[in-house]
Amino acid sequence: MKQTRGSSPVSNHGCCCCSKALPCSFHGSRDNQMHFLLLQSYFCRQSIQVFHNKYQLCTLSMNGCQGDPKVPLGTIETRTLGAVPSPALAMERLNLAIGDLNATHLLLALALFGCSEGEMGCCHVVNWYPRVPIQQQIEAIEWLHAQDQILPRCFFSGRRRANGSNLLIDITNGNDRSYFAQNLVSVAGVGSAVLFRQLHPFSYDDWRSINRFLSSKCPLIRAYGAIRFDARANISPEWKASGSFYFMVPQVEFDELEGSSMLAITVAWDNALSWTWDEAIDSLEATMQQVASIVLKLRKEASREFIPSNNHIPNKTHWDLAVKRALQIINRSSLPLIKAVLARRSRVLTATNIDPNTWLACLHVEGENAYQFCLQPPNGPAFIGNTPEQLFHRKWLSISSEALAGTRARGGSRTIDLQIEHDLLSSPKDHLEFTIARETIQNKLESVCDRVIVERKKTVRKLQRVQHLFAQLAGNLKREDDEFEILSSLHPTPADCGFPTETARLFISETELFDRGMYAGPVGWFGGGESEFAVGIRSALVEKGFGALIYAGTGIIEGSNLSLEWDELELKTSQFTKLLQVEVPWQSKVENLEIIN
Does residue 250 contact residue 189 with C-beta atoms inside 8 Å? Predict the structure, then answer.
């Protein structure tokens, strides 16, 4: 069933829009129908003000899932342009490069493939990759905030790891073939050069369709997105725009590196999908006209909001009934359910708009040992989160994952915090929950790996508000194509669904009265030779003018304390609720009293 991604011989071609060129290219067969072009430039960090554009959706691009997944990538070229001192000049240079590309498209077709002007509809893939290095750094979240009115958009911040052992590095002996990817801090993107969205469950062909647009020669070309927790469940209106899965290769992408930054422009076209070169260029130019090159140092503090409405599904009464039912089933030795993870959705309506960018920036502040993400498709709300749970990280044939289970609050002092940590490490209930997670992940890795390393000693991973039991696992995949199998196998994890998986999933579908959507589903990116996915927990669906839906869950297992489970939900959602002012402001109270009197 599985096929490996096509590769191509190396070829170098000149670049008419730059004075210095560092080529890296390859091209594919004459039969290729898909075309891909990418431009990239670095620019330096500055403190400058924001211009807000009129709210607009970027022109929709082609859906890559509708193409032939068997058709390989054709041509990629990497070029390094001369350095520029400002974002505005970087944008200028990229706009000039687009003009040059438009003017020389026919020449490229003739030079690279021998196509005539009439045959350009059947030209091969072209991926042109100019970039301008600057040894200064701008935060990707600040750049995204400057593009406040552009959709679709995405953001992904790799976890800022504390010092310590990393089994993925250990198993690869520290080898890494990509300097830029290794030093990538976070990524923001707007517009979609190509999107991937379907209503059916994410399949092997969908994975191949995404990989068709990626290349190990250019590791920073990535498709960012997320997959539903349960693709078999009905999609509710708030999740319609995302489908069963949604991925995008951004048209304009900002990469924050350690000590530098990079601006990338991507063009993709495929005449087989009725998406031509001219349409792709017109779409990119429309997006570029909306992109602000002036970025303001973002104040990472949310304004307090008056909340006229805040309701939970389920409410406290129905939650307690669901937990009691789960415990009754678990405690019956004749039934197979060992653990069930139940979730709550809290709808928050505010008197003023909630800005998803500001919320995301606030999450970023307390993001050590966690991933921050944002995915907002056209005509849909923003799915944002700050999750500590890694699903997997693949680099070539090496793969790592993590077992995360058990939750406690952080202590108000070092002494109290250590007491809570000791209680977590010595708890039989939490040890059982953790053991299920670690052994399940180990078994799934062993099915696709030649060897697996398991960190046997459980430790405690401390976050800003909570702490969890934690251990690393790593292995060597037998084939790179096993990436799809490991993704579909690891999701859902015992930490977010329960155990056994299918029994727990059925219990959740029968019990929960709302659509989880992409909450607790895989969220992350695919890239050439590398991919990384977190689990979309500690998350919310946010849209200006419509408030927020905040999601949280807790594992029910033998020994669970009914009275503590609701408190755990409150603890996990506190990273969002702290951004809101739950009580009516003092002035409003006075006004209400005057009205009453």
Answer: yes
Chain centroid to Cα 385, Å, comes to 9
User: What phi and psi values does residue 117 have, to the nearest 5 degrees?
Assistant: -60, -35
Q: What is the dihedral of CA 158, 163, 169, 175, to 10 degrees?
A: 90
Residue 44's pLDDT is what? 32
Cβ pair 209, 196 in contact under 8 A: yes
Which amino acid appears at position 307 of this protein?
I
Three-state DSSP class for residue 110: helix
pTM of the model: 0.85
CB 476 within 8 A of CB 535: no
Residue 308's nearest CA partner among 576, 580, 595 is: 580
Which pLDDT does position 23 carry in this prediction?
A: 33
Q: What is the pLDDT of residue 47?
A: 27
Q: How confident is the model at residue 301, as a pLDDT?
A: 62
116 neighbors 52 (Cβ within 8 angstroms): no
> Which ranges of the chain have pLDDT less than 50?
1-35, 38-55, 106, 109-126, 162-165, 169, 173-179, 582-597
Handedness of CA 4, 8, 10, 14 (dihedral sign): negative
The burial of 31, by beta-carbon neighbours within 10 Å (0-12 exposed, 13-18 middle, 19 or more buried), is given as exposed
How do beta strands 150-151 and 498-499 pair?
unpaired
Two structure tokens written together for 60: 């929709």
Give the model confidence (pLDDT) of 546-591 as tens digits: 789 999 999 999 999 988 999 999 999 988 888 875 433 323 322 3
Give the integer Cα–Cα distance in Å for 69 and 510: 36
Distance CA 449, CA 69 (A): 25
Cα(169)–Cα(175) distance, integer angstroms: 7
- How does 1-21 read in b/e, with b if 16+ C-beta sit within 10 Å? eeeebeebeeeebebebbeeb
Distance between CA 579 and CA 590 in Å, rounded? 23
User: At residue 557, what are phi and psi to the nearest 5 degrees?
Assistant: -145, 165
DSSP string across 178-226: -HHHHTEEEEEEEEEEEEEEESSPP-HHHHHHHHTT--TTSTT-EEEEE
Angle between helices 482-490 and 204-211 (to 10 degrees): 130
Query: What pLDDT, on a 0 to 100 scale, did the predictor assign at position 134?
Result: 63
> Parallel, antiparallel, or unpaired for β 62-63 and 390-395?
unpaired
Helix H or strand E segment including 47: none
Determine the Cα–Cα distance for residues 535 and 522; give it in Å rounded to an integer. 5
What would the 3-class secondary structure string for 459-484 be?
EEEECCCEEEEEEEEEEEECCCCHHH
CA angle 383, 321, 227 (to 5 degrees): 25
Q: What is the pLDDT of residue 4?
A: 34
